[in-house]
């Protein structure tokens, strides 16, 4: 490969007798100096290797001169189009680089006369082209260059300055953007029970076996163990117990424990899907129906959770959840529950405000703005739309008719349907506040609805118990922990307080 401006020679520039004697047509000084070719002189493999001290002084050669070319600030990054090494390039010879007969032909712009300032194409001594760390002229490196040269950052003599960095881009080599965006702060884990590091179900069942073996039961050991394990650490204990002792853990616990404490312990050893399916089964079977339980579970679970409940319910009880609901409820309340039990709600996070306004108008037209109520329209919107979308619908509804959607539902509906629709609205508006209200109703007044208390404390302890506690103290003026302490007793209270996690 030939260099621009040099006549091609076979095998490069063969050494010839002599050094650089002045020749006719040699290096006439011309205005403009030696303009840089496109791509500059990047250091390339096989090119001028940086030797300690650069090129040693040779007889007749051009040694380092005062006023060399230090790299400019920002340097010239290697670009396509540089001078790759050619076969037979410029090997250093004794006596320097002789000129061929007839000298070098003059070029446009000429070759500047070597002298003070050195030969432009010659690499500076001590480390090649500036020898900055991170490569040729990379910013942030120590500027070395020729001793006695211009101060770093000054333009090179007879050499066009480097183009200024675009102010909209970070400095060459990668810097921080001028306006860094703070990352979104994740809300984080809001449960009260956390994984116990290094928990082993085989060791844990030894503790349970020891607590139940012999005369009496060590309830405190059971409370400490189960109250410090998450659901995914508790559930494997059932299989580990049978593997180790050949006995059924749940049956052994039932024989040792009683009352609400027994119910709470057995609930904690079920997967969330199995626990919800068993609670729905209890709410439906028998003479009466616990409609509030049906609504609580179906209005607060995700699509995936409801589909898992459906699968387990069919496997455990031999009929579909939908069939069980249909045979135990009626009217628009039945339709509401069946819609929720499909687990087919839109779960997109995006909100279309124009569609939210249309839905708000439909709800207004189906209720407040007509004689009677079109329950089907409420059912279609409240059971199918995404939660973020429905929150926007509720805001638009409030602005449109000056009344909260909850109050409109209460005015337009009655009985179980009213309770179900209101629960869906409350759960969508603020799920922790909905559960705080459910807990308060379970404990206030004479007697305690222990099944509700156990279900919420177990099912929400690893989801949003911290948020429920905050909503509780904000709404009722005392902590959930304090209310549980005053309303329950014994080992049952101790384990519930473990699930609560602390006082606010």
From TrEMBL:
Q: Which regions are flagged for Gly residues bias?
A: 137-148
Q: Which InterPro entries match?
A: Annexin (IPR001464), Annexin_repeat (IPR018502), Annexin_repeat_CS (IPR018252), Annexin_sf (IPR037104)
A single MF term (Gene Ontology): phosphatidylserine binding
Write the signal peptide boundaries.
none
Sequence intervals crossing the membrane: none
Going by the UniProt record, its keywords in alphabetical order are: Annexin, Calcium, Calcium/phospholipid-binding, Repeat
> Which Gene Ontology CC terms are recorded?
cytoplasm; nucleus; plasma membrane; vesicle membrane
**PANTHER family the record matches:** ANNEXIN
Q: Know the name of this protein? A: Annexin
Native source organism of the sequence: Stegastes partitus
């Amino acid at each position: 490969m030939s260099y621009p401006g040099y006549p091609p020679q076979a095998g490069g520039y063969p050494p010839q007798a002599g050094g650089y004697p002045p020749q006719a047509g040699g290096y006439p000084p011309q205005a403009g100096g030696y303009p840089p070719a496109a791509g500059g002189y990047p250091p390339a493999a096989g090119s001028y290797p940086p030797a300690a001290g650069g090129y040693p002084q040779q007889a007749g050669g051009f040694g380092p001169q005062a006023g060399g070319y230090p790299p400019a600030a920002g340097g010239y990054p290697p670009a396509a189009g540089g001078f790759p090494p050619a076969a037979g390039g410029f090997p250093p010879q004794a006596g320097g680089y002789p000129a061929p007969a007839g000298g070098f032909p003059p070029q446009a712009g000429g070759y500047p006369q070597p002298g003070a300032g050195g030969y432009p194409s010659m690499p500076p001594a001590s480390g090649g082209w500036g020898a900055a760390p991170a490569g040729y002229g990379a910013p942030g490196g120590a500027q070395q260059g020729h001793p006695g040269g211009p101060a770093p950052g000054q333009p090179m003599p007879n050499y066009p300055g480097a183009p200024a960095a675009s102010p909209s881009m970070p400095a060459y080599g990668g810097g921080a953007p001028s306006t860094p965006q703070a990352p979104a702060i994740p809300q984080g884990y809001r449960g009260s029970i956390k994984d116990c590091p290094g928990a082993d179900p085989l060791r844990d069942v030894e503790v349970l076996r020891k607590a139940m073996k012999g005369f009496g039961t060590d309830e405190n050991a059971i409370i400490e163990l189960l109250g410090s394990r998450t659901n995914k650490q508790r559930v494997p204990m059932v299989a580990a117990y049978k593997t180790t002792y050949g006995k059924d853990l749940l049956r052994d616990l039932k024989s040792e424990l009683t009352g609400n404490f027994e119910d709470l312990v057995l609930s904690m050893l079920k997967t969330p899907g199995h626990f919800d399916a068993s609670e729905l089964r209890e709410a439906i079977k028998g003479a009466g129906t616990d409609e509030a339980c049906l609504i609580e579970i179906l209005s607060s679970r995700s699509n995936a959770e409801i589909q898992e409940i459906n699968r387990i319910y069919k496997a455990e009880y031999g009929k579909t959840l939908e069939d069980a609901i249909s045979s135990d409820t009626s009217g628009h309340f039945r339709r509401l529950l069946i819609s929720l039990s499909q687990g087919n709600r839109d779960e997109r996070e995006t909100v279309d405000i124009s569609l939210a306004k249309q839905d708000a108008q439909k709800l207004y037209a189906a209720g407040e703005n007509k004689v009677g109520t079109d329950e089907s329209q409420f059912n279609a919107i409240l059971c199918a739309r995404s939660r973020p979308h429905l929150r926007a619908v509720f805001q638009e509804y409030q602005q449109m008719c000056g009344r909260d959607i909850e109050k409109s539902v209460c005015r337009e509906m009655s009985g179980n349907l009213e309770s179900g629709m209101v629960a869906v609205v409350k759960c969508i508006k603020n799920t922790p506040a909905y559960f705080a209200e459910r807990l308060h109703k379970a404990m206030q007044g004479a007697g305690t609805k222990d099944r509700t208390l156990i279900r919420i404390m177990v099912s929400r302890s690893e989801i949003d118990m911290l948020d429920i506690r905050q909503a509780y103290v904000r709404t009722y003026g005392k902590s959930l922990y304090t209310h549980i302490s005053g309303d329950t007793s014994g080992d049952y209270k101790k384990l519930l307080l473990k699930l609560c996690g602390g006082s606010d």
